[in-house]
Specification:
Elements lengths: L2 H64 L2 E5 L5 H13 L2 E4 L19 H7 L18 E7 L7 H8 L7 E7 L6 H7 L6 E2 L3 E2 L4 H10 L3
Parallel strand pairs: 1-2, 1-3, 3-4, 4-5, 4-6
Helix pairs in contact: 2-6
């Protein structure tokens, strides 16, 4: 074969190999770039997802921190006070006692005396005994409200409290102490005050374990 023809064939072969190699290298580079883009996109998505989770956790934590709890109670003999203290300790709440301007004496609380002060108040649905101390619950959004059961109902001084404070929009949880009467009638009285998020309450004994067991079921 002529040397010129051989040289020409070799030159053509070199060109073909060069062009083919160029396209192969470009293809490999393109694939690497696409792979890198996918990895970067995946990493960005994971980072964004993690940030969203962290933000959600932050919101939940802030919601918990914003929930301010108060325990407000009236106690003529001290029993309801003990229960209120148990709740205060468990919830790490602030506590306020409703103190009547005119203190109740033993004679005032004589249930079988139709002329006793408490009997007269409970028989008069419009009675509103005056509160002798200032209580400010404006900055609290959850309020435990405690009282003894008198004549099957709330002491009228509890209604004095309800009507002298703006509680609309707040969550209020009643609790009571009683020898035998249930909390039902007193809850019916309280739920007449509208615009409040009422959570079903409970009659409690002077037992710390029973009180704490109930509080934990509220998930507050």
């Amino acid at each position: 074969m002529d040397k010129k023809i051989i040289a020409l064939l070799i030159a053509v072969l070199v060109v073909v190999l060069s062009v083919g190699g160029y396209f192969i290298i470009n293809s490999i580079s393109s694939n690497k770039e696409e792979s890198n883009k996918e990895e970067n996109t995946s990493s960005s998505s994971k980072i964004e997802e993690n940030n969203n989770i962290q933000n959600q956790n932050t919101v939940k934590k802030e919601d918990t921190l914003d929930k301010k709890v108060a325990v407000v109670y009236f106690s003529a003999t001290g029993t309801t006070r003990n229960v209120a203290e148990f709740i205060k300790d468990e919830m790490k709440a602030d506590i306020f006692e409703i103190i009547p301007k005119e203190k109740y004496t033993d004679e005032d609380l004589t249930y079988n005396n139709s002329n006793s002060r408490a009997t007269k108040e409970q028989n008069d649905k419009n009675a509103r005994p005056e509160i002798g101390n200032n209580i400010d619950v404006s900055n609290y959004n959850v309020i435990f409200l405690g009282y003894p059961i008198w004549w099957g109902d709330t002491p009228r001084i509890i209604q004095t409290f309800m009507e002298s404070h703006e509680l609309k929009g707040k969550t209020v949880i009643p609790f009571c102490t009683s020898g035998s009467s249930s909390i039902t009638e007193s809850e019916n009285t309280l739920k007449k005050y509208e615009g409040i998020n009422w959570i079903s309450g409970k009659r409690l004994t002077n037992s710390k374990d029973d009180v704490l067991s109930w509080v934990k079921t509220l998930n507050i």
